[in-house]
């Protein structure tokens, strides 16, 4: 299943029902006065956030949302039935944007928030409202008002504590699957991860947990649309920490490729969003079981980290052999839980 985090939809609130023209007729009242009732109000359209939804996939096939019109007024001064309201459910973390006005109407931060996005039209007036001392048989009424129409953009951002990034085949998905409950796809080809994957790291000692997010791999020129692009990086907005994964299995003959990988990722990151680039970043050297000389690697990393001030720590791990995983996860939990999340 594809993952959709943006959608454009058309919404139309219900129109108000027309007012009624009617005159009272009864056995002993052949020429009664006006008794036409008012039209009912058109249905409103609401957005409500729901924590059981984690994408905008439902909006991929359905683009038009219309609430029920109000019903016409009736005789005997009866008001027409109001149109039913329409409720549209969206995930927490969704921005509701009015495209025409170019403004954000609301950002859903918590579960069960409710927002009126389009008002239904008012019902028209029946002829009972136009009766006067000089007009006892009014044939006047008004039509119902039109409901509001809008073109809405939905922009959804996952909320996670930790973001995982790296070049293709750096072992991000294997790591996520190893430490969390996430159901990730693993393979030896680029772009195994084609949509964001959210996993959970649990601390069994104090029953705390944090969320960790894997996104599609970044490649050179992702910022200009190469590979799967960089739009998924927006989901790092709420992350307190970024883990930069590097595949050490390919550096035996060229240890300087580490610097190249760091440069590629962070060049693309800073072009996309400087605020995300400035987040705390740790270097995770994965597949360490395949490296010949770890001592030389450690010396090299310590040397280059003086150049990359934005990288605060580095770790040597092997997700496959379960090397260094516990230390890394313990440090992640300590760091995140100290951020007062």
Task: Please describe what this structure looks like.
- 40% of the residues are buried.
- Helices cover 16% and strands 24% of the residues.
- It starts with 5 loop residues before the first strand and ends with a helix.
- By secondary structure, the protein is α/β, with parallel strands linked by helices.
- The strands form three sheets. The protein has a six-stranded mixed sheet with strand order 10-11-9-12-13-14, sandwiched between helices. Strands 3-1-8-5-6 form a five-stranded mixed sheet, with no helix packed on it.
- About 3% of the residues have low confidence.
- The chain has two domains: 156 residues, Spo0b-associated Gtp-binding Protein, Chain: A (Distorted Sandwich), CATH 2.70.210.12; 176 residues, 3-Layer(aba) Sandwich (Rossmann fold), CATH 3.40.50.300.
Total number of domains: 2
Tell me the distance between the termini: 31 Å
Largest sheet: 6 strands, mixed
By oligomeric state, this entry counts as single chain
Instruction: Flag low-confidence runs.
Output: 184-192
Order of helices and strands: EEHEEEEEEEHEEEHHEHEH
Mean pLDDT: 86
- Compute the CA-based radius of gyration: 30 Å
């Amino acid at each position: 299943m594809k993952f959709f985090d943006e959608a454009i939809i058309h919404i139309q609130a219900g129109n108000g029902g027309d007012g009624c023209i009617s005159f009272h007729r009864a056995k002993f009242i052949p020429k009664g006065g006006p008794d036409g009732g008012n039209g009912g109000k058109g249905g409103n359209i609401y957005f409500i956030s729901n924590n059981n939804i984690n994408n905008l996939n439902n909006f991929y096939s359905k683009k038009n949302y219309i609430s029920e019109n109000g019903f016409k007024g009736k005789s005997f001064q009866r008001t027409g039935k109001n149109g039913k309201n329409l409720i549209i459910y969206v995930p927490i973390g969704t921005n509701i944007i009015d495209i025409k006005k170019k403004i954000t109407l609301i950002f859903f931060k918590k579960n069960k928030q409710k927002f009126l996005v389009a008002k239904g039209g008012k019902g028209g007036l029946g002829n009972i409202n136009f009766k006067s001392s000089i007009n006892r048989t009014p044939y006047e009424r008004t039509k119902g008002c039109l409901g509001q129409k809008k073109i809405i953009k939905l922009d959804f951002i996952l909320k996670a504590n930790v973001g995982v990034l790296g070049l293709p085949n750096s072992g991000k998905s294997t790591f996520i699957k190893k430490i969390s409950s996430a159901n990730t796809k693993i393979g030896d080809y680029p772009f195994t991860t084609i949509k964001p994957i959210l996993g959970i790291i649990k601390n069994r000692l104090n029953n705390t947990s944090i969320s960790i997010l894997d996104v599609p791999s970044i490649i050179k020129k992702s910022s200009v649309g190469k590979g799967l692009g960089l739009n998924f990086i927006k989901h790092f907005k709420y992350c307190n920490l970024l883990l930069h994964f590097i595949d050490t299995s390919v550096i035996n003959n060229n240890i300087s490729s580490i610097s190249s990988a760091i440069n590629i990722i962070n060049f693309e990151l800073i072009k996309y969003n400087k605020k995300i680039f400035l987040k705390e970043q740790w270097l995770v050297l994965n597949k360490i079981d395949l490296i010949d000389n770890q001592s030389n690697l450690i010396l090299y990393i310590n040397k280059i980290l003086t150049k990359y001030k934005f990288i605060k720590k580095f770790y040597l791990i092997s997700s496959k052999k379960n090397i260094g995983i516990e230390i890394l996860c313990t440090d992640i939990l300590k760091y995140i839980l100290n951020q007062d999340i």
